[in-house]
Design brief:
binds oxidized coenzyme A; OB fold (Dihydrolipoamide Acetyltransferase, E2P); 3 domains; 7-stranded mixed β-sheet; alpha+beta; elongated; Chloramphenicol Acetyltransferase
Length: about 550
């Protein structure tokens, strides 16, 4: 099946400025095959049908006229008839802004002559009902003159630059990127000096929507405009103006490339898809090659083919594991962590705990050191409320909370979860033991409700049952501190007259150094160590 150049309206000849496929490419009907350009407009020519490109007869720079053979397509089963392929509908051509000036662009609704406030409206869009605002160039207070870019609109077929046609000052911008607008929608308000010289210039009166003022829509692309010249859209002389087709703009948006930073290698500086990809690649390489000590850019981890070194298998990460990974990474890169270590003498605590074992059994509660630690932490937080706080979203304040909700890190087969004991400071040690046990059980049997997982103000991560003398726990943002608990062990402790074997509990406090300084952390640890060393203080 031949791919031919569709109807060009009044345009006799166009230049091929970009070839977007190569022989062998599998394309769908809407994929762009080539980009063509006249002295008035540029258009993307879609394949029109699904299939494989078998031949291309054109090169960049070739001059083509309507019906010229572009190439051939071997049709896939779903492809439509050869007849329609030979003559794609004119509205398939994607037209975008071009560098010439047009007498009428955005519609301006003018109230009267003199110093006036005018509305700048979306002009007639031909067959298109709705378009998306993809760029907003002006802002309130900007002094504008005719030709300055106001917004760029995009449908699935075309992108259009809407310039301003009056001199004045923008008062309001009434749209934002992402808004859907249609013909007649209010784009902006401007204060202008209007000198009306004849009745014909009164065409745009308040409330009226005048003649189609913007060409370059697909419908207009195939039609001559009123003065008989082909469709045209003005580009502003603004440096920020981007010269790129809709497909290139879409690609740039999808991968987050700011087009205004990309230099175009196409005809007359047009930005091509390859320019966008090259820019993104260069940025990635730059990030990868930037020594981490010299910049804020995160170096990218190299991809390693582990199978080269031996046999491997892949185990999918659970939903929880992926969520934990994202949370940990976010906290680690956003919060400057400091970890402070201390040891608490829990010899007396352990004597007391063991003495309560029978009663615990009767109550059906497991009395590990954890509920004592939670209780002591609550007392410590009450004495040092900064560590129970959060940094406000705008970074301007430390939010101090009048409640203490302690999160407990629980290891489950699916990954780490942190259920929260709400109002932990209001509970006694038995109740804390029961609550911790209940939440850990719910976590392991996937029965936690959303409520059980939210509202934490401070987290405890205990690895005491496993071992280890200290670690650097990662803060559970938006909290500002987390306590890591290691395994207690007997150590010789100097007790005034000699060394005594005493049970020492390793504690590691990580805190957000943006709002918690070393002395805050130090005071917190001193209080906590004192309380755990003499649990009678917990009753004071
Ligand atoms: N030192 C010495 N022994 C300890 C201890 C400590 N700090 N903490 C607990 N133990 C003992 C307990 O006393 C118990 O022994 P006995 O049965 O002889 O009394 C044993 O270790 C097991 O305790 P446990 O784990 O059943 O209970 P717990 O209250 O200490 O902990 C929970 C509950 C939910 C925190 C725990 O099961 C858990 O999931 N821990 C993992 C947390 C985690 O993954 N943290 C890492 C987060 S960062 O990656």
């Amino acid at each position: 099946m031949n791919i031919v150049l569709p109807s060009l309206g009044d345009i006799d000849e166009v230049e091929v400025t970009e070839i977007c496929v190569t022989v062998g490419d599998v394309v769908s009907a809407e994929d762009t095959i080539i980009v063509i350009e006249s002295d008035k407009a540029s258009m993307e020519v879609p394949a029109g049908h699904q299939g494989t490109v078998t031949e291309l007869h054109i090169s960049v720079g070739d001059m083509l006229s309507e019906g010229a053979a572009i190439g051939s397509l071997s049709e896939s089963e779903e492809a439509t008839t050869a007849e329609s392929a030979a003559e794609p509908a004119p509205q398939d051509a994607r037209v975008e802004s071009e560098p010439e000036q047009s007498p009428n662009d955005a519609i301006v609704a003018v109230p009267a002559s003199g110093q006036q406030t005018v509305q700048i409206l979306v002009p007639d869009l031909g067959d298109i009902e709705q378009v998306e605002v993809i760029e907003v160039a002006g802002q309130p207070g900007t002094v504008v003159s005719p030709g300055d870019l106001l917004v760029v609109l995009e449908s699935d077929k075309a992108s259009m630059e809407i310039p301003i046609e009056v001199s004045g000052t923008l008062l309001e911008i009434n749209v934002a990127v992402g808004d859907q607008v249609s013909a007649g929608s209010l784009l902006a308000m401007a204060q202008v000096e209007i000198q009306l010289t004849s009745d014909t210039e009164m065409a745009a009166q308040p409330e009226s929507v005048p003649e189609p003022a913007l060409a370059g829509t697909p419908a207009n692309a195939a039609k001559p405009s009123q003065d008989g010249s082909p469709s045209q859209v003005r580009r502003s002389g603004n440096d920020a103006t981007v010269y790129a087709g809709p497909a290139t703009r879409r690609l740039a948006r999808e991968i987050g490339v700011p087009l205004e930073h990309v230099s175009g290698s196409g005809n007359r500086g047009r930005i091509t898809k390859d320019d966008v990809k090259a820019w993104a690649k260069a940025k990635l390489n730059q990030a990868a090659n930037t020594p981490s000590s010299l910049g804020s850019a995160l170096p990218v981890l190299p991809e390693v083919d582990f199978a080269k070194f031996g046999s491997v298998e892949e185990e999918p990460l659970s939903r929880i594991q992926k969520q934990v990974a994202a949370n940990m990474h976010r906290s680690w890169v956003n919060i400057p962590h400091v970890t402070q270590h201390a040891q608490a003498d829990i010899d007396d605590l352990e004597l007391f705990r063991h003495s309560m074992k029978a009663e615990a059994q009767t109550r059906g509660v497991k009395l590990s050191p954890l509920p004592f630690i939670i209780k002591a932490v609550c007392h410590t937080l009450a004495a040092h409320p900064k560590l129970n706080g959060s940094v406000s979203a705008d970074g301007e304040n430390l939010v101090l909370k009048h409640y203490i909700n302690v999160g407990i890190a629980v290891d489950t087969p699916e990954g780490l979860v942190v259920p929260v004991i709400r109002g932990a400071d209001q509970l006694g040690i038995w109740a804390l033991a029961e609550k911790a046990q209940e939440l850990a059980e719910k976590a392991r049997t996937k029965k936690l409700a959303l409520d059980d997982l939210s509202g934490g103000t401070f987290t405890i991560s205990s690895l005491g049952a496993l071992g280890g003398t200290g670690f650097t726990p990662i803060i559970n943002a938006p909290e500002v501190a987390i306590l890591g608990v290691g395994k207690s062990g007997v150590q010789p402790v100097w007790r005034g007259e000699g060394f005594e074997p005493r049970l020492q509990l390793p504690l590691s406090l990580s805190y957000d150094h943006r709002v918690i300084n070393g002395t805050d952390g130090g005071h917190f640890m001193v209080t906590l160590v004192e309380l755990l060393g003499d649990i009678r203080r917990l009753s004071l």
